[in-house]
């Protein structure tokens, strides 16, 4: 049996530091815009108060889940119960009116919840549970690969239909990563790529606004006031920051230039106000988190824990890479939050709860 040790305090502290940076930057990026908008009660603290409430709830959930033995998650009732609830919520969103042009949120009692945020850790949990018992047959298509892909694929289709192609792509990436960690042969990636071509044609080429985003990624200055506007404003913010930044709260691009500065483009605000040094610090913090998470996976005797830790770490790493890549113009514009930092109650709460599972695994490594 694995020896019980104390919680990985390095991982715990990095998590809290990232949450703290998030609260500071949510306020910095949103205060002026919120104070000028009657929709937000003309309150500079509108976004900060909401984010702080969800972050506090998330930290409580993290602390409670840290004490909950992760091996109890191996139960079929837990795995398929969570899968069923998440599927129901992903279907339920289509019965609510659109917000920002998409069916992504369930609304209740004045609050909103984004089920696609829950879908990501549930994909990881299901794959860790399923693949643990199929490791000797990991490269068998009928008995392992097909059923392993089927349930995440259902999530991916529902999320893409909202539409939220970015989160759908994260679910696909997590599935591929966990299959590789479990020992799947790399040649199967060619099959994945071939199967993705029709989906790319349908979801990107046949959708005019997505195709414009892809063209804007290649040359944003071809349409600087249209499809290229987001990335151009983001690059201006990053470039303006220089080495040390303009100073906290002194950024200009967040003032009605940079779209959604408190969510998708919050890293651009960090780069403008904290400079290259601040941006590198944030990247290093994510690097430390990933290193400690992968260390927990490596030192787990239990294959379920190994896959679960690797998947939860990948969930954060993939989203951070997507978000920062978009801000720096290295990836097409997609609405992927920066974990722990971007504004969004569902995101910060679910991510912190997931970290509670990862921290519990670190207590029971070799």
List the helices and strands and how they pair.
Layout lengths: L8 H27 L10 H21 L9 H17 L13 E3 L2 E3 L1 H18 L8 H20 L4 H17 L6 H18 L2 H11 L10 H13 L24 H33 L4 H25 L17 H18 L4
Antiparallel strand pairs: 1-2
Helix pairs in contact: 1-2, 1-10, 1-12, 2-12, 3-4, 4-5, 4-6, 4-11, 4-12, 5-6, 6-11, 9-10, 10-11, 11-12
Provide a descriptive summary of the structure in words.
It is a single chain. By secondary structure, this protein is mainly α. The protein has one domain. The protein is 65% helix and 2% strand. It has twelve helices and two strands, in the order αααββααααααααα. It has helices at residues 9-35, 46-66, 76-92, 115-132, 141-160, 165-181, 188-205, 208-218, 229-241, 266-298, 303-327, 345-362; strands at residues 106-108, 111-113. A two-stranded antiparallel ribbon has the order 1-2. β1 and β2 (111-113) form a beta hairpin. It is globular and about 55 Å long.
Kindly state the mean pLDDT as a whole number?
89
Helical proportion, percent range: 55-70%
Report Rg: 20 Å
* Cα distance spanning the termini: 9 Å
For the report, how would you describe the main beta sheet?
Answer: 2 strands, antiparallel
Poorly predicted regions are: none
Which properties best describe this structure?
mainly alpha; 366 residues
Summarize the structure.
By secondary structure, the protein is mostly helical. 65% of the residues lie in helices and 2% in strands.
